[in-house]
Design goal:
The chain is of the alpha/beta class and about 280 residues long. The chain starts with 10 loop residues before the first strand and ends with a strand. It contains nine helices and seven strands. Strands 1, 2, 3, 4, 5, 6 and 7 form a seven-stranded mixed sheet that branches. About 40% of the residues lie in helices and about 20% in strands. Iron/sulfur cluster binds next to helix 2.
């Protein structure tokens, strides 16, 4: 008999909150029942997994570069056409040239804070600070297609990352919380290097986001019924299709005309594998 309650101290992330928002049943299967996804040996899935592995290596290369490893030493890691193109785009991106000159940068940083009896956590690709002036959250994306900014603005990642930096980032700012107006989240798309998506922040947005996140976590923790999504197109790229009788064959990435569908497919498969909570250093408030 499966228990349908969250363990006390469960750690929420943008991924689990996005899963719940996309499909409550996916949240149940992935985080409450902790089901591993069935191995689906179809070509689109393998292609998607390959791209994700390369995306993870790209993140590591950028992180190593930002903490001081010379680009020449890292370039030899870019063995595939995708990686090599992303790396070249990164090294040549005029929009990223000033990053290393910022006085304070933090790569692959975890922030976490309690929310009721639970926790909320985010892992940041890069936080770059101009003390007393601006604080930038950078996130690297290796999507095939660049999603619309309106879509990205509404994603849990955009809302969680900015709100959590205000809520839990004081240690990065001399013990004082960052004013929301100083914060900006920037997505850099490795295949669209000059088309950054920028999301400034303000106090009203922060209050709205923080209230909404608290409300969502409270709603999930009180839920006992996790229905299947009514938007069946979301099932096409969900690894739990066979559990829900929503088809056994993965959707083909190339068949997804819509930029956001491709981005969703990428994120949905990645979710759940991105954090190892036991092995990461945390800054906690
Ligand atoms: S297959 Fe569809 S209904 Fe089932 S968990 Fe995935 S998105 Fe939800």
């Amino acid at each position: 008999m499966v228990s349908l309650s969250l363990p006390s101290g469960f750690t929420f992330s943008q991924s689990s909150l996005q899963d719940y928002s996309d499909c409550p049943r996916r949240f149940q299967l992935r985080y409450m029942e902790q089901l591993r996804w069935p191995a689906v040996e179809t070509e689109p899935v393998l292609e998607n997994e390959r791209r994700q592995r390369e995306g993870q290596l790209f993140h590591l290369m950028v992180q190593q570069h930002l903490i001081g490893l010379p680009s020449e030493k890292l370039t030899s890691l870019a063995k595939s056409p995708d990686l090599s193109r992303w790396w070249e785009n990164y090294l040549n991106a005029r929009e990223l040239k000033d990053l290393k000159d910022l006085r304070s940068i933090h790569t692959e940083l975890i922030l976490t804070t309690p929310v009721g009896t639970f926790r909320l956590l985010a892992k940041y690709d890069l936080i770059a600070i101009k003390p007393g002036d601006r604080t930038f959250i950078y996130d690297w994306k290796t999507y095939r297609k660049r999603p619309r900014d309106e879509w990205t603005a509404a994603r849990m990642q955009t809302r969680v990352y900015r709100a959590l930096l205000v809520q839990a980032g004081a240690a990065l700012n001399g013990g004082i919380s960052f004013p929301p107006e100083q914060i900006e989240m920037i997505y850099w798309y490795a295949d669209y290097p000059s088309e950054l998506a920028r999301f400034p922040y303000n106090t009203n947005q922060y209050k709205r986001d923080w209230d909404a996140l608290n409300g969502l976590i409270s709603e999930i923790s009180n839920h006992r019924h996790f229905p299947l999504t009514e938007e069946e197109k979301k099932c096409a790229y969900c690894p739990y299709r066979s559990y829900c009788n929503r088809g056994g064959k993965a959707g083909a990435l190339d068949d997804m005309a819509d930029e956001e569908d491709q981005a969703l497919a990428h994120e949905t498969a990645l979710t759940g594998s991105e954090f190892n909570f036991e092995q990461i250093a945390e800054i906690e408030f």
